[in-house]
Structure formats: C-alpha cells, structure tokens
Design a protein that fits this description.
CATH superfamily of the largest domain: FAD/NAD(P)-binding domain
Distance between the termini: 22 Å
Oligomer: single chain
Bound molecules: flavin-adenine dinucleotide
Number of helices: 19
Structural class: alpha+beta
Length: 581
Amino acid sequence: MSPSTPTSPNRSDLAALRARPTARVLVIGGGINGIATFRDLALQGVDVVLVERGDFVSGASSASSHMVHGGIRYLENGEFRLVNESVVERNGLIRIAPHYVKPLQTTVPIFSTFSGILSAPLRFVTHKQGKPKERGAALIKVGLTIYDTFSRDGGSVPRHRFLGRRKALADLPKMNPGLKYTATYYDASMHDPERIALDVLHDGVVAGGDRARAVNHLEAVGAAGGAVTVKDALTGETFDITADIVVNTSGPWTDLTNAALGTPTTFMGGTKGSHIVLDNPELVAATKGREIFFEHSDGRIVLIYPLKGRVMVGTTDIDADPSQPVVCTEEEVDYFFDLVKHVFPTIAVDRSQIVYRFSGIRPLPRHDDTAPGFVSRDYRIEEGTLGGTPTLSLVGGKWTTFRALAEHLTNEVLQRLGVERTVSTAGLAIGGGKDWPADDAARRAWVSANAAGLPAERVEQLLERYGTRAVETIAAVTAAGAAAAGTDDQPLVNDRAYSVGEIAHLVRAEQVVHLDDLLLRRTSLAFVGGLSRELLDEIATIAAAELGWDDARRTAEIEAVVALLRDAHGVELGVVTTTGA
Ligand SMILES: Cc1cc2nc3c(=O)[nH]c(=O)nc-3n(C[C@H](O)[C@H](O)[C@H](O)COP(=O)(O)OP(=O)(O)OC[C@H]3O[C@@H](n4cnc5c(N)ncnc54)[C@H](O)[C@@H]3O)c2cc1C
C-alpha cells in the first residue's frame, strides 16, 4: 500500500544491521510482544535485533479494545492462571506506565438474575460449546467476587459494587430501563497502545545501544543455512541475518512466518475483531466516562468505551485467514449499532458519526471446534529449529500480559544462551512513566521545572501525550535554531493541538518511514477522525523536509494514506489538493 521509494535517511538501524548482519538473538515481529522481548533482552545486555515487516505496532497490537484487563470473562473458561497473571500485570502497568495505563471504571448492565449460572460450570469442564446463555446477575456476582480476590494487592483498583434497577438508572439514566441491575468494577484503560509500545521500544534501544537494533519495514522472507533472509520493503533488497536463536513473535502470522522460513507449523487459529469510533457527544456523556461492558443477544461480550472525546464500539470474534487483510464490514457496523441500541435505546447512532473503523486478527491458538469466544487467551512458547539454529515461536499473548510474557520468553532465550538475568522488568518504569508526577502539586512542579519558556498549558498537553519523555519534545522545539528552521512550537495551521516542531521531532526520533506511520501510530490523529486533506498536506510537507522526500514521493505518500484510510478504515478524504513541498 505504501509507495516503493529509496531508503529514508532516518533508518540508521538498518544501515547498522547491513554493516553487521549478526546478533545473538533475532526477534521477528514488532508487535507489543516482540518489542517487549526485544527490550527485556536488551536490558540483559544481549545483542538483539528486531525486524518488523510493516511499521512497529501495526498488526494485532494496533487493533485491540484498548483494555488492560484481568479478563473477567476468562474465568468462565477456567483460565485462572491467565486471569491471575493479567490482574497482576494490570496493577503493575498502572504503576510502571502511569502516563498511559489508568484505572478504568467499567459498568455491566444486567438484564436477568439467574441465566447462565447452570451452563457456566459445563464450560469450565469442556472449554467448548456453542452460543452461551446470557450471563445472569448471580453468575456475574460470583465472577466479580473471584476477580476482586485476584485484584487484592494493596488497592490498585477498588472493589466491585452492584446496584438494583432504580439506583442503576439514577446512576446512568440513558441506559435501557429494562435492565435489572448494574455491576461496576475497575479494570484499566490504555488510551494510546501504540505510544506505550513505542516507549517500550525506546527503552530497549536506549538500554542496548548499538547492541539493540530494531528495524521496521523489514520482512523475514526466507532462510538459508540457519540464517534468516530479510527484505527491505522500500528497496526490495534482501540480505541474511545470522543469530544464535531466532524468536518468532509474528502474532497471527506466526505460522506464515515459519512457513516462509521453511519450517511450517500449524499453531495458530486467529479470529477477527473489529471496532468503530463514533463522534457522538450524547453517547460520550451517557457513559459518564465509564466503559460499558456487557453481553449482547448472541452471547458475545461487547463494549461501548469513551476514548479521546469519541466512543469506541466493539467487538466481533470471527474465524479469520491471516493471509488476507481484514476490514470492518457493513454487517459488523449493523451489529455495533444494534448493541448500542440495546443499552442506550434513546440515543441515535448512524454511519455519518463513524470517524474511524479498524479490524485485526487475534493471535489465538488453533482451536478446532471450540467457539471463537471460548478459545484460550493464554500463551505458550513452541521450540523448533532452523537449519541448526534453535527457534522459539510465541503462540498467543494479550496486550495486558506483554511484560510477563516477554519475561518468560526472555528467560527461555537466556537459558539457551547460558546468560544470567541481571535486570527485572517487574516494577521498572516504562518510557515516559519514569518519575511520573502523580498528583496535581507534583504535576505543577514538573511543568514549571521543564517549561523551557513554553506556556504551562502546552507543557501540560505534552506531559499528557508523552509522559515525562515530553522533555525530549520540549528540547526539540526549543532548541537553538529551531525557530530559524521553522521547527519550533508553532502550532499547525490545520490542527492547533500539534506543532510543526513536534511533528518534525516525531519523524526524526521515532523511525517514521511512511506518512501513515506518523498519522496512525505516532499520533492518534486518524483514530479520532482528526484528518483532513489540508492537514495531510501540511504534515506531509514537514515529513518531506525531514526525510528528504521529493515532490513525487510526498504526493505518493499522501495518496497511499488516502487509500489506506478509505480501504482499511472506512474514512473518505476525497481528492487531495497539494501545495507542493
Ligand atoms: C479485536 C481485538 C481486540 C483485542 N483487545 C484486547 C484488549 O482489549 N486487551 C488485551 O490485552 N488484548 C487485546 N487483544 C489482543 C492483543 O491485541 C494481541 O494479542 C497482541 O497485540 C498481540 O501482540 P503480538 O506482538 O503478539 O502480535 P502483533 O501485534 O500482531 O505483532 C506481530 C507483528 O509481526 C509482524 N510480522 C508478521 N510476519 C512478519 C515477518 N515475516 N517478518 C517481520 N515481521 C512480521 C506483523 O507485521 C506484526 O506487526 C485484542 C486483539 C484484537 C484483534
């Protein structure tokens, strides 16, 4: 989808990798699990290379429901290990990534008292079956009580509470008056999953220096004598990387990567899930800032979730072929509208309010006749060999558990390399979560200490956006010469929440190769429906200046983003008018 063009000047890790195409560990796949494993290995001083065929965090990790959650519904599948680990990790992430992971109040509307209570034990035993019956209040109460027990760790999040119909409707008056109860509990939200992953990646690169090289737009396409052949997506050039161990963290594409390496596997059985993002202020207000998490008429657990002034609605769970791209279909949109109507019957939703759609494939294990919603969400590590080089393939792995999963995977690698772990990632702050000012007074102090002449509200905004790594943006936009170069903090003409210098800094510092890397993952401009043709043109001009794109490349990048937004995200920006580079 992205235009093929010469190598961009900010791909220094690629140049370093070409100069020294060896490492102790090669990690294939730069989703959150590959990135977290890269960071953990780099922290141990292991020479590690990460290759990602698209942009970092552009696979399943960009398609999540943005929940850092214990997974209360996995209790139904008997997945107590996973729920326990997830709750511990959720609480841990609230502490080590407080800039991006926050407690999230979650309310479940309940329409019956007892249904589901009889069928649930059967599911514990068999792990498979068709359509579940609606989960009644009694079952949800049992689940939440167990969940509270897992969550008891000194109060990261409060315990659950139940309300009867009258109080529930007084609490959330726009909810369906047919409900019998609501249950409210806490999980956690990650408003910017892509930014968390970029922080984790940055930690790894900083920790490892020239022994931690991460390259995007570089695909593992084959193998030769124990080495892995990679292909530069921009130039089409290939070269071989040798490593002592190869780790396959290609998510839903794990089998396809193994097949490309000549070691076919049948580990995976991913399912597709879609979301829509609505610009509907009435719905935002009706949720009172809470995630509404409930069971739809078909037994699927779905959500209505206010994020960034919009409302995200999801999700579906449909068997999918990872060799094909997935998109959110019109049937899925109808399904989402139907579920909003079920819970908020008086709030009108229609297609004109959709500002973004997205879809991804969950990297689930092969599941034969188990219904998609009941496939295990737990992960495992599979051993193999590639012409004498040991390989480890990751099967499964949620966003929530990425730190613990990376720790397990790293331990497996360290054991095979005969290297001792020297650093634990448990409790180690992530990126801009380091020295996070936790209360208002600390925040005010941080802002005045780091403003460097910028207005306090702008510094607040950058702190919110990047955590304490905002100092890097502040330094870039206030550097001597920034004003003369036109990369100071001058707001963009078409979006005053971002500045020219901030965009230029993101392009330079965060391995932006294509325009969509910037618009979909370094910023959330696309997610909130904030893009216009004029803004695209303005941002492309900044990227072009930083990356040395000529006018033809700049135009091709804009056209590629317009096509991507239309085909994959249901966003129509129409004809592009360009001002020239
Ligand atoms: C609809 C949906 C909702 C979800 N909601 C949640 C949630 O709310 N909370 C939660 O905890 N989890 C959630 N998940 C699960 C979670 O998003 C994923 O399990 C997790 O992101 C997987 O990360 P990963 O790094 O293993 O895989 P991915 O993010 O898919 O990363 C794999 C990467 O490998 C790359 N790759 C593939 N082949 C090659 C190759 N040959 N060479 C180089 N690179 C390659 C891909 O481009 C991709 O970027 C959800 C998933 C989906 C789809």
